[in-house]
Specification:
single chain, 3 domains, Rossmann fold, alpha/beta
Length: 427
């Protein structure tokens, strides 16, 4: 039985993904017409029934976010799509923007109709230059077909979507930093509360969702929230796009139903990761992005769902699953992860800015001792372990935003999972 589904990715092989006529023939924009004729609260109720969790990484319930914004009376309201896909090992939003841009736009327009929003914005990571041009072409086509601009789909409602280019800052994947960047300010996170639903873009109420989240909205409107939920896990409906990379055979983006596939399936199933070449074995995997935890062979039978992964100390996160074989040093890998966070910290708060630097210093010392003075490794590990734990705890509790709060997640999990490499003792 296949481990794959095509709930979301149906239509990926359409010859011209930006052709509105092809999209309409495949059922496109029927959800928009249905939403435009419905009571907005009924649409939100279906999204809540679907238990659609945010697909960008935080997994916040989309229905609750939409409901919150709907009950805020201030206007104008804005719709923002977070397409700043800067998480290493993550490239599933790219697939949607390349091959399913009209489905993404339909989801954003539905949100615009529900909230009678003034405008929509898609904030695209700076490295996706070609994608930005393709999105603009798709927007022009949708505009020409009457689904954007004045009196969209004959509703008497005016709505347009604009594309904003990021400049390569990882921190702008955080929603409030993204809004600051959209406004032309420094891309640094805002203090919350107030929440973005209350004070967002241009200090007005704003909905911010990820690309994959918006792309699921037409599905929910068309099939209903209950059917969407049944297609996934009882705690999180629908499917999930996973990005498999690293040392496995089959690297790419795959759509799997939530709750029906294990991590073992993702890494070893011939339809998915396909295992390893050359007879090598799995050493560890990094799941959910750089800010996610590291897992090992003992966790392979964990079901891929938000609930089951959380119970195992892991997370869905951005959907990344980066696989490493036994040739990789955990310490060297974690050093590179820490270097990444040192580079990408915005510097706004001390726990993140200085904590990451100190962790990198420790990881470099670990690397040197492990490579050149292995006999000293147990003593060094014993002396530095309390310092490392205090640093991680301080960063997790006191950092201003999610970047600093989760920057040490990989290190924290790997230090427990691979204590022998850190302490230089066999177990």
């Amino acid at each position: 039985m296949s481990k794959l589904t095509n709930m979301l990715t149906k239509g990926v092989n359409i010859y011209n993904p930006r052709n509105v006529l092809f999209y309409e023939e495949a059922g496109g924009f029927t959800a928009l017409k249905k939403a435009a004729a419905a009571n907005p609260q009924d649409i939100i109720a279906e999204i809540k029934k679907a238990k659609l969790l945010g697909r960008g990484g935080a997994a916040y319930p989309a229905g609750s976010k939409w409901d919150h914004l709907f009950h805020i009376s201030e206007t104008p309201k804005y719709i923002v799509c977070n397409a700043d896909e800067g998480e290493p090992g993550t490239f599933k939003d790219r697939l949607i923007m390349e091959d399913l841009p009209l489905k993404l736009l339909e989801g954003i327009i539905i949100a615009g109709v529900v909230f009678r929003a003034k405008a929509g914005y898609i904030y695209v990571r700076g490295e996706y230059r070609k994608l930005q041009k393709r999105l603009l072409a798709a927007i022009r086509n949708v505009h020409d077909a009457g689904y954007l601009g004045e009196n969209i789909a004959g509703t008497g409602f005016d709505f347009d979507i604009h594309v904003i280019s990021g400049a390569g800052a990882y921190v702008c994947g955080e929603n409030s930093a993204l809004l600051n960047s959209t406004e032309g300010k420094v891309g640094r996170p805002r203090i919350k509360p107030p929440h973005l639903a209350e004070v967002g873009l241009f200090l007005n109420p704003t909905l911010v969702n990820n690309v994959e989240t918006f792309a699921n909205i037409p599905l929910i409107v068309n099939m209903g929230g209950d059917a969407f939920l049944q297609a996934g896990h009882p705690d999180s409906g629908g499917s999930k796009l996973v990005c498999i990379s690293g040392h496995c055979r089959n690297r790419g983006v795959y759509e799997i139903p939530l709750g029906s596939v294990t991590l073992r399936d993702i890494i070893y199933d011939p339809e998915l990761g396909g295992g390893f070449t050359g007879g090598r074995k799995l050493k560890f995997f990094h799941i959910g992005g750089q800010s996610g935890a590291i897992g090992g062979p003992g966790q392979l039978d964990t079901v891929y769902s938000y609930t089951d992964l959380k119970k195992a100390g892991l997370s869905v996160g951005s959907g990344a699953v980066v696989v490493y074989d036994e040739s990789v040093s955990v310490i060297e890998y974690l050093k590179s992860v820490t270097e990444f966070f040192v580079s990408e910290s915005c510097g706004k708060c001390v726990p993140c800015r200085e904590g990451n630097r100190q962790l990198l210093k420790i990881m470099r010392e670990f690397s040197d001792v492990a490579a050149n003075h292995k006999d000293r490794l147990p003593a060094y590990a014993q002396s530095v372990k309390p310092v490392m734990q205090r640093l991680i705890q301080t960063m997790t509790d006191a950092s201003f935003c999610g970047l600093g709060q989760t920057a040490a997640a990989a290190l924290n999990s790997a230090a427990k999972l691979f204590a022998d490499e850190f302490e230089g003792v066999s177990r």
